[in-house]
Amino acid sequence: MQEPTFLILTALAAGAQHGYGIMIDVARISDGRVRLRAGTLYAALDRLKSDGLVSSDKEEIVDGRLRRYYKITDEGTQELSAEVGRLRANTAAAAARLGLAGGTA
Amino acid sequence: MSELEHRRHRREKRYRRLLVLYPKDHRREHVEEMVCVLLAAAADDTLARAPKPVAWAVRFGQDTADSADLIAGAARIRSRLAANRIKRSRWYSRTVRDPQWSDALAVVSVVAPLLLVVAALAEFSIPQVAASFVTGHAHLRIDTFVSLSDLPLASGAPAVVVLAFLRLRQGAALAAVAVAIGLVGAEAGPALAGYASPAVAFSILLACTAAAALQLSPGPERGLALLTRRGAVWVGVGGVILGGFSVGGNAWFGYPNPQAGFTSFNSEVAGLPADLLIAVVLVGVAAFCLRTPVSRRILALLAVPVIPYAFLWQEKLAGDLVGAPGGASSVIPSSILLLYVPPLILACLIVAGTRLARRRGTGRARRMGSPRTPAGPRGAVRA
Fold first, then answer.
1. What are chain A's domains?
2. In whole angstroms, what separates CA B138 from the centre of its chain?
3. Searching chain A, which residue's CA lies closest to the CA of residue B36?
4. What ipTM describes this predicted complex?
5. From the list B37, B70, B71, which residue is nearest A23 (CB)?
6. Mind listing the pLDDT tens digit for each residue in B77-96?
7. Does the predicted TM-score (pTM) go above 0.80?
């Protein structure tokens, strides 16, 4: 799983969010390292929706403009959990080889 | 309208112009929220108090990055939709998803990059020198001169093989496409001047075949699993024969010969016996390939690049028979039609034959009430 996809699913794991909210949340989760732009975000959302990992939630009009919310699906939650497991195993292996105490960096 | 509003209006217009690049369905569903997100992300408000040059530079950078990102996003969505459309198509399900075509493509994803390396070595006359050493007809030397037109094949072919065996299949396919484009670019000048080389056409078509096989097949690992030891030997022999005893990459560009005028076949190594050997080996490989459904498909796939190569070989044979390399022969007339049409008809017959056999096999399986079994490794490439 690519990092933007992982971060988008992580942002949605806490609850449904609109596009701009996801962008802000992703920047916060990654400590400002990953800043998604609209083109990248909507291309990723389009792919995630067609893969069944994300679905549209409610819509609202704010200041005369449409705001659509997205939520993670059960399949998306499973996929994210599996990725977390993979990353955790890799991190533990790397930490063990580096001799880091407690298996954490 | 304040300056800030005016700027937002202009920005929105620019974004809407770029959003036209997105597919219609995507636009209908997302364009308003994308504009909303783009405007919300713009830092107009925070830049209100910044010095003018700083604000201008920040806005310019942001606009450029947003525009590039929108264009890249549109390209990503469109390419994904195109890939999905191909995957849903009838052609895809009958060829790439078909287990026998899939296996044939996997074997070609091993064979075509290796033949590409043989073609690259032939640019330096290396297989020809080895062949002339074996036959005692040693009048060739290794050509160490690398011209600009040699570079696409000389550097690209090893890259394709290395990437393919590092399991970077898409990278290898892209490298093969780059080789084909590089060769087309390098040979465009001579081709327009009337020196179109069938040897270069062979390399270009081979690179395209390798790219298609690498992209559409399960990959070289599957191909290696299918290639039995005997099959691998035949591939090696075929490669050496094509690269060594026949003419190489630079063959078409001749040199002035005081006795025979302008000689085209400066890479000729062993005369008529080698020509006959080439014919025997190629016919032998083709005959063995006719034995199983998968190898018939491999033959059909590899027939495509070999068609122009056959033209070179016929010219060479004609020259050998009359004793003047590159000269016309009354025994075998040197004609494009004569050489291009029979292999083309043969390839069409092979494709038609395999489709007919498959249809009959499916019909028989349906009548028997049993599903058709895909070809296993043992039944694949028994050359």
1. 3-98 (1.10.10.10)
2. 33
3. A65
4. 0.83
5. B37
6. 998 888 888 777 776 766 66
7. no
